[in-house]
Structures are given as structure tokens and as C-alpha cells.
Amino acid sequence: MGAARKKINILKNVLNGSIKVCEFGLTNCCSCRCSFCSIWKQKPKVFVDYNKACKAIDKLAEFGVSHITLTGGEPLLHPQIVKIVQYCTKKNIHSAVLNADARLVNENNLKLLKNAGLDLISISVDSHDPKIIEESRKIPNLLVHIDNAVKKAKRCKLRTMASVVIWEGNHKNLRPLMDKIDSMGFDQISINYPEISNSKVYTLGGESVNMDKEDVINSLKYVITLKKEGYKIINITSSLKNIISYLRNPKKVKYSCYGGYKVFFLDWFFNLYPCMHLAKPIGSLWDVEKKDLKRVKCNSCNMSWYRDFSVYFHGLKSIKPFYETVNEYFGFKV
User: Fold this and answer.
1) Cβ-based burial of 200 (10 A; exposed 0-12, middle 13-18, buried ≥19)
2) Which pTM value belongs to this model?
3) What pLDDT, in 10s, does the model give residues 70-104?
4) What is the chain's Cα-based Rg?
């Protein structure tokens, strides 16, 4: 019943034009030590208050937010993660958890999250090479832990997604990485584009993601090839091509980003941002009203989650992305 109500809520918000999506950072605490993210260095450590989190979800639902990705830091370290997922379900909001450290995925928390109504667990996978991935996140035997996490999720009948950021450690080995992900049994794959943020809260960067533009373009072209070959990559081709256009000339993109209008990032201080890249928030969520969520076309970055969702909100130009999505995920032509 919960899944059906979420689908009805999504359809309702699509039809009335209020559909939105949000990433919600629950904590800056993380057990990884990633080379391309320094959130784990932040002090003091912050965990969002549960009651305030529920009030935030209420307000996001009023805006039309129909999907929330719970992130961090490491969201599984939040002591109220199950109850927060449960509250998303109560509000008929589709939810996902973005896991950075697969050691924290166990059958007990998976069962609790599944029963709370979690729709998807997304697990970060940086490389097919055990040594590279261990060095990337400073976690011994991480690939083994990821493999075990996927098996546990399957036993709990919880859908899994491999979250892959393109970086220096994998851009020349995307096929063996996709093969490894496929062999582990992931249901789908999301590709994240390398990005250095201006945010003082969501601090992304480092030499490993400060890549040559042509290397990124060639990697995205190869991702399109891998999609055509049948790998379960959810990034639609229209968006991948749009990012390639952006990297070549930001002024000549077909789909600008609608961060702050249809897609958002809410941090652990309850500040609402257009995305994780920008330093300036729209404002405190408690002060933001619907009228403040304006259609501002932005080309400041190639932040994948925000750019990929934005392609659906460009009127007639979005017919092609919708066609691709229906064709790829529902298996029939329109």
C-alpha cells in the first residue's frame, strides 16, 4: 500500500506541476576518509534532530517534493535513520539512502529500513580494483563489504543502486567496473560526474576529481556506449549529452539546471540550497516559502543529480527525456 500511495503522490504532483526532489543531509559524520570529499573532517559533528527533520519533511512535502535522498556524511550513522525513512513513507514520499561505507549495511538495519518503507539503497562503488577502492575510502576489504551488502539487500528484497563517481581512479576502466557491479547483482547504476564544490558545508574536491575536461567528455561518451550495450545505467542519454555540451560550452546547453526550483539540497543545519555545489543557500528552510522557489537557469556546474533531474522540466524540450525514460524503465515505446 505504501508504494502505491507514493506512486499516486508522484503522479498527482506531476499533473499539478508541483513535482520536486530533494537531497537531505542528515549528518556530517562519516566513517569513510575519501580523497575527493572532506565532510568527514568537519567539526563539530552534527546529527539533525528527529522532530525537526519531520517538520522539514512536512514543509518539503508542501512544496511538492515527492522523492528524498537521505545522505550525509554517512546517513546510516544517524541514530534515527529508520524513523526518518518511516516518516517519509507516512508523507507518501519516495525515499533512498546513499551509503558511503558498506560495512554499516547489515541485515538488521536493512530489514528495519525495508519495513519503514525505504525504496532504494544506493551504495558508493569507486573502482573494480580492490586496492584502488580501499585507498579511495581508506576502508580495508571494501569491495568485499559492498558485495556482502548487496547480497543482504537482495535477501531483504530491497532494491540496490551502485553510485559511481567518475574520477582519476576509474575513468579508464569503466567497463570492468560496470562488469564488477553487474556481477555483484546491483539492480541499477547511477553515474556521478566529477565536481569540485564551492560549498563550505558539502565540501567536494581534491586532485582525483580535478580532471581534464576531455577525459570527462570521453568518459561520458563511453558511458553512453555502455548504456547502449545494456548496462543498467539510469542516467538518460539526453542528460549525458547535455553535460558533454556543457563541458564544451556552458552557453550552448539544451537543458539548464533548475536547482532551487525543482531540485534542492537541504543540509544538516536546515539551510535549503539549489544544489550541493553552491555556497549561498536560498535561505533557512523555516523561512523559505513556495514563492521563493524560482525558475532560475543555472550553468555553474555539472552536478549530476541536479542536472539529470532538471532535464524533465523544460516544457516541450523535455518530451525526448520522458520518451527515453518510459522506453528504458517501462520497456515499451510511446
Assistant:
1) exposed
2) 0.95
3) 999 999 999 999 999 999 999 999 999 999 999 99
4) 19
